[in-house]
Amino acid sequence: MKVWQRRAGLIFASSLPCCGMYVLLSLRSVSDVYFLGQVGVDPQAAFATGFIMILMFLSFGLGCLFQVNSLVSKCVGKRWFLRCGSIVWQGIWFSLIYGIAVICCYFAAPFLFRLFGHDANLQVLEVEYFQIALPSAVFQLISWTVMHFFIAIGRPRVPLIIAGLALVVHVGCGYGLITGNGLGMGVAGAAWSLVFSSATMAVIAMACLLVPRSLRKYHTSNFRPRRKPFREIARGGAPIGGREFLEEFVWNVILIWIIGHFGNVHLAAAAVLISIQDVCILMFDSFGTSSVALISKAIGSGKVRRAENWMRVTWVIMNAIALICGLAFYLLRDWVIPLFSKSPEVVNLTLSLAFFVPIILLFYATYSTFDHALAATDDNSWPTIANLVISILMLVIGGAILVVYFFESHSYGAWTLITANLAVIAIIFLGRWENGAWKPT
C-alpha cells in the first residue's frame, strides 16, 4: 500500500502543474458558454461550432509543440542549458508559421461552415466567431510553447500564473463584450475575448521568458532560426499533432455535425455539456502525459513490471477523478445547468442529457490511460489507425444512418454514438496493452 501511495503521490506531483494550467485555460470556454447563454440560443449554438473548428485547426500545432517540453527536458537532464533557449525559440518560430497558416483559413470560413448544413442565420454567426478568433491562434501557440519550456525546466508556477491571468482577462472581456451589461456583442464578443486573453497570455509569457536574469543560463535570447531543432519539433511532433487533430475531428467536429441536424437548441445544449466535460478531460490528459515519462523510463531500464504498475496507478487515479467529477456534476445538475442558459428548452434538454457526462468521463479515463501508456512504448501507428477506422465506422457512417433512419432519436442518438465509440476504442486499447506486444522479448 505504501508503494502505491508513493507512486500516486509522484504522479500527482508531476501532473498538478499541467493539470492546473489546462483547467484554467479550459475555463475560458466555460465562461464563454455561460455569458452567451445569457444572450440567447443562437449565439451559444454558433459558439459550439466555431470554437470547435478553431480547436481543430490549432490541435495539430499544439501537438507538435509538445516536442518543446521533451527536447528541453532532455537538454536539462544532460545539463546542456545553452541549447534550451534555441529550442524554445524554434518553437516560437514554428508557432508563428503555423499560426499564420491557420489565419489563412479566414477566406475559407463561409465554405467550411456551409458543410455543417446549419440554417443561414446560424452560419453567419459561426463564420463571424471563427474569422474574428483566428488571430488568437498565433498567440495561443506562442504561449503554449513558452509555458511548456517553463514546465520542462522545473518552474511550473510560471505557466499557472500566466494561465490564471489569461482567465481573468478573458472573463473580464467576456462580461464587457458579450452580455447586455457591456457592449452586448454576443458571439463576436466571445471571439474578441479569446483574442485579447490569448494576446495577453503571449505578451506575459514572452516577458517571463526574456526579462528574468535567472534565465540567462538557458540563453533565452537566442532567437535565431536554426534548422535542426526546428526540424526536430516539426518532424518529431507531427505524429502527436496528427493524433490530436484526428481526435478533435472525429470526436468533436463529427459530433457537432450530427447534432446540428436537430436544431440550434440541441447545439446549445452540446456547447454546455462539451465545455463542462472538457475541463475533466484535460485533467486526464495531464495525468496521462506524466505517466508517459514514468512508463517510458521503466521500459527503458528493462523493468516491465514497474511500467505495468505505473499504468495501473494512473488508471486508478483517473477513474477515481472521473467518478468523483461525474457524480458531482450529475448530482448538482439541477443547480449547475440552469446557470448556462436562460432558455427553458436548452436547460431541459441539457438536464435530460446530463447522465451521459459521468459515463463518458469513465470511458475517457480508460481511453486516456491506455492511449498514453501505448504512446510510452512507441506504439503510435496501430492506435491511430484503429481510432480512425472505428470512428469512421461508428461516427461518420453511424451518424449518417442515425440522421437518415433514426432522426427522432435527436441528441440522445448522437450522444449514444459518441459514448459507444469511446467505449469500444477504450476496450480495444486496453486489450492492446494487455496483449503485451510492447514487452521486450
Specify the helix fraction band: over 70%
Radius of gyration: 21 Å
Name the structural class.
mainly alpha
Query: What is the straight-line distance between the termini?
Result: 30 Å
**Percentage of residues in strands:** under 5%
Given the C-alpha coordinates, what overall shape results?
globular
Q: Write down the domain tally.
A: 1
How would you spell out the order of helices and strands?
HHHHHHHHHHHHHHHHH
Number of helices in the DSSP assignment: 17
3D architecture notes:
- This protein is mostly helical and 441 residues long.
- The model has no long low-confidence stretch (mean pLDDT 88).
Summed up, what is this model?
This protein is mainly alpha-helical.
Outline the secondary-structure elements.
Elements: H1 2-39, H2 41-64, H3 66-77, H4 81-103, H5 109-114, H6 120-133, H7 136-152, H8 157-177, H9 187-210, H10 227-260, H11 264-300, H12 304-331, H13 333-336, H14 344-353, H15 356-376, H16 381-405, H17 410-435
Please tag this protein with its features.
441 residues, globular, mainly alpha, 17 helices
